[in-house]
UniProtKB/TrEMBL annotation:
SUPFAM superfamilies named in the record: Radical SAM enzymes
PANTHER family: PYRUVATE FORMATE-LYASE 1-ACTIVATING ENZYME, PYRUVATE FORMATE-LYASE-ACTIVATING ENZYME
Keyword Aminoacyl-tRNA synthetase: no
Cofactor(s), by name: [4Fe-4S] cluster
Residues of the Radical SAM core domain: 82-224
Keywords, ordered alphabetically: 4Fe-4S, Iron, Iron-sulfur, Metal-binding, S-adenosyl-L-methionine
Source lineage: Bacteria, Bacillati, Actinomycetota, Actinomycetes, Streptosporangiales
Protein name: Radical SAM protein
Keyword Amino-acid biosynthesis attributed: no
Length: 338
């Protein structure tokens, strides 16, 4: 079964039956019958339509796996995903979903999403709702429909959306984890097919709108893994805020980059030091450095505040978001009700 198209938001009419899409910075003006490079928004008879009101996946997992480390430790997230992405990264571990329309290996999968059913399932599990695995910013319509059911919503996103799209979704989002995949636009464009600047602007835009933001960087060979790229990224992020949690993700060979090797633990340790030296207070490494890489330390006195197992929080000493030893506040949304 193919996509079930429905009317999209952020559309404006152009002369000659064309329609402008205001969702991502590509700003496509689509002629009648044309589909955007994301492959999930199209002009049909002068109406912009989306295919992303779809659930191909609905999976319950820990908030730490998104990853969010400063958001309701121990919370669960019912994560929903449909096909589609604005980027075409050669390393994508979810390429069978994200690269729909670009790759023969990514046929259409999924059925129309039922927001009420998804929310009821999340509520029964005491979970938030999340959009991840593919690109959630392509699904503002589904995000807003899910929000009508009153649960917190989180995204794991590439951050490639317009300020107008941020204005639309920020009021219903609790948190966003945004990937920063390169330090400069040339490298970012070579990897993703898109410029970097809108991603950095989205980090600032979501923060200004009151959404909790964490950042992830996969250490991609030849792109983000070099010390120079990491230093530049860390400096940029620290300039935005030294309190931005930065997750360094081990590269896993997949898709078009199967011949590369996984990131060695010593490179992840070096990357973490680069982040700390740049001034970032919370730099995390998911697995390769053991529990030490996942620990939150007090920036005031250095004591351990949050311990994490491989995928979940193991224990927290935070007292109303502050260090119990010296009283230093640690930024985050430590208790989000479901
Ligand atoms: S979301 Fe798709 S159709 Fe809209 S501007 Fe971006 S690539 Fe073009």
């Amino acid at each position: 079964m193919g996509p079930a198209w429905r009317t999209a938001l952020l559309a404006s009419a152009e002369p000659g039956g064309r329609v402008r899409c205001g969702l991502c910075p590509f700003g496509c003006v689509l002629a009648e019958g044309r589909t955007g490079p994301c492959r999930v928004r199209r002009n049909r008879a002068g109406t912009l339509e989306t295919a992303t009101f779809t659930a191909a996946v609905a999976h319950l997992d820990a908030v730490e796996r998104k990853p969010f480390y400063h958001l309701s430790p121990g919370a669960k997230v019912l994560t929903v995903a449909g096909p589609g992405c604005t980027f075409a990264c050669g390393y994508c571990v979810n390429h069978r979903l994200s690269q729909y329309g670009r790759e023969d290996t990514a046929p259409w999968i999924g059925t129309p999403a039922l927001p009420g059913d998804l929310a009821a399932r999340a509520r029964a599990d005491g979970a938030m709702l999340g959009l991840s695995y593919s690109e959630p910013s392509l699904a503002p319509e589904l995000t807003l429909a899910l929000a009508e059911h009153g649960l917190p919503i989180v995204w794991k996103s590439n951050g490639f959306l317009t300020p107008q799209a941020i204005d639309l979704v920020a009021p219903v989002l609790t948190a966003v984890n945004i990937d920063v995949k390169a330090a400069d636009s040339r490298a970012h464009r070579a990897l993703t097919g898109a410029p970097l600047e809108p991603v950095l602007e989205s980090i600032a835009g979501f923060r200004a709108a009151g959404v909790w933001v964490e950042v992830s960087t996969p250490l991609i060979p030849g792109v983000s893994a070099s010390p120079g790229q990491l230093e530049a990224m860390a400096t940029t992020l620290a300039d935005l805020s030294p309190d931005l949690p930065w997750h360094l993700l081990r590269f896993t060979p997949d898709f078009k980059m199967r011949r590369e090797r996984p990131t060695p633990p010593e490179d992840l340790a070096s990357a973490r030091e680069i982040g700390r030296k740049a001034g970032l207070r919370y730099v995390y490494v998911e697995r390769a450095l053991g529990a030490e890489g996942r620990r939150t330390l007090c920036p005031g006195c250095g004591s351990t505040l949050v311990e994490r197992g491989i995928w979940e929080t193991a224990g927290s000493r935070l007292d109303a978001g502050a260090c119990p030893d010296c009283g230093t506040r640690v930024p985050g949304r430590w208790r989000v009700g479901t």
